[in-house]
Amino acid sequence: MTNVNSPCTGEAGHPLQILMLENEQLKKRLDALEEMIRQQSDAVGIKEMLEDLSPLRSHDDKKDELVIVRLKRNGIEGPWDDLWNEDGELSRRLRTLRMTADSEVPSAFRSFTMDFVKQLREMIRKEETLLYPRAEEALSLSDWQCIYSDFSKFGYAWLKDVPVWAHAAKEENPLYVTCQDGSQDEAAEIHLPSGTLTLKQLEGILRTLPMELTFIDANEVNRYFSENTELVPRPLGSLGEEVYDCHPQRVREIVRSVIEKLKSGEQDMISFPAEKRGRKVMIQYLAVRDRDGGYLGLLETVQEVEQPRIR
Description:
The protein is of the alpha+beta class.
């Protein structure tokens, strides 16, 4: 039974309606890909079709980091961690298929790709018969408004014209509008050891830095991230929540290990290269300490290591 506090999710622009529209686009691509495999097309043609599945990451991120996270925070039980982990595995399989298309034996490559298509179809079935109905039933209007307000950060998979939801909150995010607007007193001064800045100036500096920042306090709670998080989208709904909620189960122990190494003083910085949104980046985790060495939290920086694309 649908939550009485939630509008009909069949409404144009509702988060679940957008996810369903993306699934329809995905199904069309899977149909075409299956037909190419049956016709024993060469690996080059199949690889081109696989490249067209790249926006799947945007779909999965919205589903995992917004809908599944909201269900878990509300205490709604379900196989949510399993679904999130499966999304990660499917993403890795897609990346592997794209990378090995030119080196695999054609018959083997077509077989691997067909298995991948079947797994994707099974994930669509789980979304549409389990996840979406449970979310429609359990989440309230305010939940959906918060989810919707973060949707555009993650982009849209294959959709050209995304409908606007009539029940969207007037504020950009109903729960965290103060995080968007900052202090009412923009002239308020912040006195630092090496200078003084107004709040407006500080916000401008943070907005201008050529990297994305995330600060996690000593209690492992998300406290701040850059306004623009294009490389690693951060939903405003994650502010005030434990950092572990924002990650799939399979990587939570890695996150916990990184925090412990920085908090204990074993290391002051941990960094590694990665690919985000098809762009090469360097991710750094830095321990933030007070003058006496006390641990204040962790600062994550994400910076593109190649020249930004011309748009």
